[in-house]
Amino acid sequence: MTMEKMKLPSILFLSFLITGTGSALAGDPAGAGINYERARWHPSHFKPDIDQATDEQCLSCHQEVLERNVLQQSPAGVRASEALAWYQTLHTYEGPQMTFHQRHLTGPLAKELMELKCNTCHQGMDPREEAPIVPDQANTDFTLRKQVNPDVCLMCHGAHPYEVMGLPGPWPESREAFQNNCLLCHTGIRTNRHQVNFLKVDAIEEAAKADGDVCYGCHGGRQWYRIAYPYPRNAWDGMAEEIPDWAKERPTESQPRFQIKKQAAK
């Protein structure tokens, strides 16, 4: 196949995207009939609008992230129903395998314990910061930036810091000594926790009473990284004045965009 013939499908596809009528962003009448290129530069993809963007607005153009399903069978012939995905290794995960976005937005555990929104993870998608379709090794000034800050993922997918917690070993080895109950210690230590707007605080605390895997699932049980997230030390009743060496650089509150907004007094 000649290079010209190879380029033709890409050109036709790009032409379709540019001239086609993309989905208008929900709640944005001015975007009616907006095409692909204009949609890429819509203010909702940039600060400060991205902070106020609703899931409805995001999914009006990106609904496919929830409609796609995992393959019933891999190209190698392994059936999903007969395989155990890494995120299914804790029994708190229910049902068949789901895609990444389904697990975080519409899965049973997500609905029960989380308040994740599109802009919890996605803080914009500036086309100027995307990787070029054809890498140009000569363009050394180009910087590839991630569309999601890895620190956001680390908050729920870091390693379990059993060393700083004074445990004799990793939680799977230590859990029986603590009756597989994180609250055995944490009813009196670090009691002011989960104070972020993407979690259901009361639901987590209640679920943790019945199952230690509720806690471990986000604190090492579904680990993506070799390091632990340096959680802010929200002050709690009875907190010692002396700060341990490992915590001296920790913040005392969450990032502003994750903080729970207090209702103004009437």
Give a written overview of the molecule.
With 266 residues, the protein is mainly α. Helices cover 32% and strands 0% of the residues. The protein has 12 helices and no strands. Residues 1-24 have low confidence and may be disordered.
Gyration radius, in Å: 23 Å
Order of helices and strands: HHHHHHHHHHHH
Helix/strand structural class? mainly alpha
What is the count of β-strands?
0
Percentage of residues in helical conformation: 25-40%
What key phrases describe this protein's structure?
mainly alpha; about 270 residues
How would you summarize this macromolecular structure in one to three sentences?
With 266 residues, the chain is an all-alpha fold. 32% of the residues lie in helices and 0% in strands. It is built from twelve helices and no strands.
What topology does this entry show?
Elements: H1 3-19, H2 36-40, H3 55-62, H4 64-67, H5 100-105, H6 108-113, H7 118-121, H8 150-157, H9 171-174, H10 183-186, H11 201-210, H12 213-221
